[in-house]
Amino acid sequence: MYFCARKQLIIYKPLKIFQLIMKVKSLLFVGIAMMGIAFTSCSKEENLFDNEAAQADVYAKYSANFVKKYGPIDPNQTWDFATMSPVYLPKSSAGSVTRAASDVVVTRSDENKIIINKEVLDWMHSEMTAGHDNSTKGQSFTFETPGNDFTVVPIYQGIASYRWELWVNIGGNGGVGGTDTKIWEKGHEISYRTSAESTTWITPDNQGVPDNAYEVKAPITTFSSASGLEMFFYLKVYGGNNPAGGSKVTSLQPMKMIALEGAPRPKSVPEDYTATIIGCEDGADKDFEDLVFMVYGKPVPTIKYHEDVDVLEAKRYLIEDLGGADDFDFNDIVIDLQRYSTVRNKFAGPEGNVQYVGNETLSEGQRAVIRAAGGTHEFTVKIGGKEIWKKSSKYSVTEMLNTGWGGAPIDWNAELAVIDLDANEWNATTNNIEIVVEDSKGIKVVSFPDRGDVPLMISVEPNTLTNWMTERKDIPTDWTVW
Ligand SMILES: [Ca+2]
Ligand SMILES: [Ca+2]
Ligand SMILES: [Ca+2]
Q: Are residues 429 and 354 in the same domain?
């Protein structure tokens, strides 16, 4: 019996801008050898060398075009843009269940504002005393929708150097489904006046609304939905290490938001309505007055305290299969690798004086989710050297999936395939993912690029700001937001 040696060739491109690893492997030889048929020579070897040369040629052209388009690459340029910011979600009731988006009707107009009078502001300042640790007044929570309309309005903006947006998810189950709505962003359409006599409404800067403000005027957002849906608020924070808004402050994390029932309602809200105010902490001093908003309704949604939450950390890998030398759509394979866990946040003490006393991981796992495949070649995904999925196992290899080809709609939440991984199989630090592409020129292996290389793969934070490109649309030069 005779085996052709499996050969791995590493070609160093000029200036070491990339390593293209091409494996010369003839499955045919292995297959026949396993059947016990002897070979006396590897007559195909010459051809395979030609294939290597052809692949290297495409890569050299790709590299030249890449530099022409995006400019010379800084030797320290890293292609790992994901921050792995944990996303906190209500604990899923039955694992990774799919639930249709809930019907939520949102009514909003920037002209539709209410005045937050001094009595409300005074109550807020007495409960969320600036510079004090107010964390004992609450714990991780969601709301349950009441079935009647309810309204959300920002009432106070503290000092903050980052930009943030206030969002709400209604009806999600373990983060799957539900409706996400942006309610407000820092500084938008909010103003205050300093006295009853003043006719000037001032827009707050980074110093926020001053504590002696007499009244605040802010835009309202009203929601209609079915009753009994889970609802949680979160902030997307932009700036610092999170240019893509990767960091989320949510009501499900301990020490990030507190909800206080029994707040006085603004004067223009009918008497039989009830109100809850929610304070957010974007720093470390636990005063929860960096952003304060109010929810009111008849009645206001009910608070539900949560000890167990699901935590998801993920990276999205955008990959080129080198089908051509002038195409940088990076959508030939789009795959999210996820680490998920259920964490119990422990609180102790009587209501009103609750202390956060740490957390414990109840369960954890990893999985891969194929989101799109905008190439026309067979490929195999490997994690840590182990094959986990092959395109032909489920789809035609020539079919471009979920990348908008021919005007087809793109589903940004599509799960073309979900593959459970062993715990710790994916290493988020070393990015131990490889894609083995098979085309007419042979086999090539795309791995995560080193610093300064011309990339065939980048990683980004998986969110709406980093949705993948449609076919043949080059990825923009700002690698983190587009
Ligand atoms: Ca604070
Ligand atoms: Ca491509
Ligand atoms: Ca493509």
A: yes
Q: Is 357 exposed, middle or buried (0-12, 13-18, 19+ CB in 10 A)?
A: exposed
The CATH code of the domain that includes 228 is 2.60.120.400
Contacts of residue 122, defined as CB under 8 A and 6 or more positions apart, other chains included, come to: none
Residues around ligand 2, an ion, CB closer than 5 A: 320, 327, 329, 332
Q: Residues whose CB is under 5 A from ligand 1 (ion)?
A: 281, 283, 285, 287, 290
Q: State which amino acid sits at residue 119.
A: E
361 forms beta bridges with 343
289 and 350 assigned to the same domain: no
Q: Distance (Å, rounded) from C-alpha 274 to C-alpha 297?
A: 6
- End position of a domain, from candidates 289, 305, 321: 305
Q: Which ligand is nearest to the CA of 470?
A: 3
Rg (CA), the chain: 27
Residue linked to tokens 């910011």: 85
Q: What is the mean pLDDT of each run of 10 residues along the chain (482 residues)?
A: 32 32 32 37 49 83 95 94 82 50 81 95 94 89 94 91 86 65 92 95 89 95 92 83 63 91 96 97 87 97 90 93 91 96 90 87 95 96 97 97 94 93 94 94 91 94 80 83 56
Which of 309, 311, 312, 314 has its CA nearest to residue 356?
309
Instruction: Quote the CA–CA distance of 312 and 341 in Å, as a whole number.
Output: 7
- Whether residue 78 contacts residue 466, with contact meaning beta carbons closer than 8 Å, is answered with no
Name the residue among 142, 166, 139 with its Cα closest to residue 154: 166
Please identify, among 251, 275, 305, the residue that sits at the C-terminal boundary of a domain. 305
- Does 110 fall in a domain? yes
Tokens in use for 369? 């989710």
Look at the block and give the residue holding tokens 């993912």.
Answer: 433
**391's tokens:** 């395109």
Question: What CA–CA distance (Å, rounded) separates 385 from 447?
Answer: 11
Beta bridge partners of 235: 166, 249
233 token code pair: 């608020």
Domain that holds residue 206: 92-305
The rounded distance, in Å, linking the Cα atoms of 430 and 34 is 35
Could you tell me the distance, in angstroms and rounded to a whole number, from the CA of residue 423 to the centre of ligand 3?
Answer: 31
Residue 336 lies in a domain: yes
Ligand 3 centroid vs 254 CA: distance in angstroms? Answer: 42
